[in-house]
């Protein structure tokens, strides 16, 4: 993966990450997942971003440098993985929402449950991390030069397959079209509008 690609605003990087591959090596084994759905979150101008109110101990990784992994706990239940983008010192990251397991399916299934259908193994940001094996210990991991979690290029994705739409489950700036996904792919998560969502000035 080219660092120059990641050193751009999140909304420009997010569609370009479709088809890329995240690999996680743990003592249990290796899982590789091709990305099929992403969401862009910028910094202090994005009300839905963790960095909207500035830098904190929790969101510090979001402020750069690009090419690192920002991991946070969602609703106290699930880990979520974000690829840090943009310039050092400016918060910007792309949430990985869903993917297709291309290696280590047995291990991913063991983490997710025997009854989970194959397309659902990494559908949704929490499920993606669970299947991949990403936890808090991977926060700040160098995706380009590290070894535990690695981001690499995958098969090229035809531009005609890439669609954009509103973000899922956020109450602020939900109607910004910063969600990108592969049209018709069964691994892509279902769109859900937050019951607290209100129209914003930008879409």
Automatic annotation (TrEMBL):
Domain of life where this protein originates: Bacteria
Family of this protein: Belongs to the DNA glycosylase MPG family.
Protein name per Swiss-Prot or TrEMBL: Putative 3-methyladenine DNA glycosylase
Broad class of enzyme this protein falls into: hydrolase
InterPro entries registered for this protein in UniProt: Formyl_transferase-like_C_sf, MPG, MPG_sf
Gene source species: Streptomyces synnematoformans
Keyword Hydrolase in annotation: yes
CDD domains: AAG
Record has DNA damage as a keyword: yes
Record Pfam families: Pur_DNA_glyco (PF02245)
Keywords: DNA damage, DNA repair, Hydrolase
Enzyme Commission numbers on file: 3.2.2.-
